Amino acid sequence: MSLHPKAGQKANPRELTNIPRLMADYYTIRPDMTNPACQVSFGTSGHRGVSSKASFNEAHILAISQAVAEYRAKEDIRGPLYIGMDSHALSEAAFVTALEVLCANGVRTIVQTGLSYTPTPVISHAILCHNRTLSADAPERADGIIITPSHNPPMYGGFKYNPPTGGPANTNATKWIENRANEHLRNDNRNVKRIVLPASRKHDLIQHADFIYPYVTDLKFIIDMDAITNSGIHLGVNPLGGSTLDFWNAIADYYNLNMTNTQPYIDASFGFMTLDHDGKIRMDCSSPYAMASLIDMKSDFDLAFGCDPDGDRHGIVTRAGLMNPNHYLAVMIEYLYTTRQSWPQNLKVGKTLVSSALIDRVANGIGREVCEVPVGFKWFVDGLFNKNIGFGGEESAGASFLRFDAGIWSTDKDGMIPCLLAAEMTAKTGLDPSERHVRHTQKYGEPAYGRIESPADARVRKLLGSLSPDQVKIDTLAGDKVLKVLTHAPGNGAPIGGLKISSENGWFAVRPSGTEDIYKIYAESFKGPDHLKQIQDQAVEIVDHVTKA
């Protein structure tokens, strides 16, 4: 991946997203349903798009919201629907559109008082708290919607549905909603129910509630907040102009933390951001280029961290710099499974197929079994909900874990609790997460990890997504004996939508993108960067052979 010359620098004000035009496009552009790019498509979590490209417009949100209302009726879900939004400009408009459809369909909704922003994990937490005493088929159970494109650039919009299990909907649910929404779009939304809400958004079916206090006060049951407070360590936080802003301020006030908010305001153009690796504004808290402003301040704090706009990802900045997400996942796993004394010994460790093998080595070192699943946090929902795994994490800096008593916290990614866990371990042990990672490398070896992307048309992506082990004849990987060739995840048997090949000292995985005309190769070596390059080159050769055969 080539690096843009302005990566890590502030954007030119003339290059910022034109928010008025973005909003006009949301209301005026109609999707061409003969173009697949304009249709509703749920990826690993939800539908995302851009209004100027006719992929995220009022018509889409009308159709998706109607489909969700119909899905609830089909599944006999009659409890409240918790709905939140992040700080992307299109989220504001889509939020109101969704409310108009949900009210017209008789769906009781709960929104944040003042219609302010609500992080993804807070919606998951609220759903689970509501459903805590209900049976799995109780009609009164709640579900939720989060209007967010996550860390994507400012012109994007996104829509996620979380069923009563609290986390991202499974493939069966999203496929049903996706198909039904596209039916509505092809029918010009003639069967979509809608009412016009007043400016106050007051309606008998809309309940305004405080989401901040219940979440903030509950944190003491998953993080040792007293230890952080009593240590007095100086914390820095950057919400990246997102929905966690008010939550971080409330956390600091309620627990009397020595915390400085380095980005205390919201700007829908995200003009305060530094450019990502490709020169785009992207609120990716795992990117050293997007997090450059906080990294520049690392010496000002004992520990600093940030979250993306919907608060489902974390970025940890120590005095050594921004941590690689894979490294911090391994640090969290070892710390949690050795300090949470009430966690059962049979709790597994959840990881995605493209996360670092360092996690496997650490888990083995503390005597815990790994449950390896395909890419996407939806694959952790059942494990967390049924308390079969204590922790679920993915390479893109998303994670959640159980409470002190092994109860459920959230079944969606929560970017705030990993940040606070970093503060807890620093406060209680005197070692920050980077220092703990150094100890891992001394014990388990130092991983070299990389990801490359290449163009791929629909034919190539379809081929890569349906590979079988028989199509790949390989005995060695960069000089080491091949141990596994996987097209299904060993943790749950689900198709991975690609291929993973592993040896004792390295591995690679190839996956076609579900939303872009590219494929991705993830690779790792415990023999260093040169060996990693050999693995990547061999992976490219295998892809070329398969796709050109």
Describe the model:
Helix content is 33%, strand content 20%. The chain has 549 residues and is α/β, with parallel strands linked by helices. The protein folds into three domains: 15-210, Alpha-D-Glucose-1,6-Bisphosphate, subunit A, domain 3 (Alpha-D-Glucose-1,6-Bisphosphate, Chain A, domain 3); 214-444, Alpha-D-Glucose-1,6-Bisphosphate, subunit A, domain 3 (Alpha-D-Glucose-1,6-Bisphosphate, Chain A, domain 3, 3-Layer(aba) Sandwich), CATH 3.40.120; 448-548, 2-Layer Sandwich (TATA-Binding Protein). The chain has a six-stranded mixed beta sheet with strand order 1-5-4-2-3-6, sandwiched between helices. A six-stranded antiparallel beta sheet has the order 16-21-20-19-18-17. Helix 6 crosses helix 8 (245-254), helix 7 (225-231) crosses helix 13 (416-429) and helix 10 packs across helix 14 (433-444). The longest helix is centred in the last third of the chain and has 20 residues, at 529-548. It is globular.
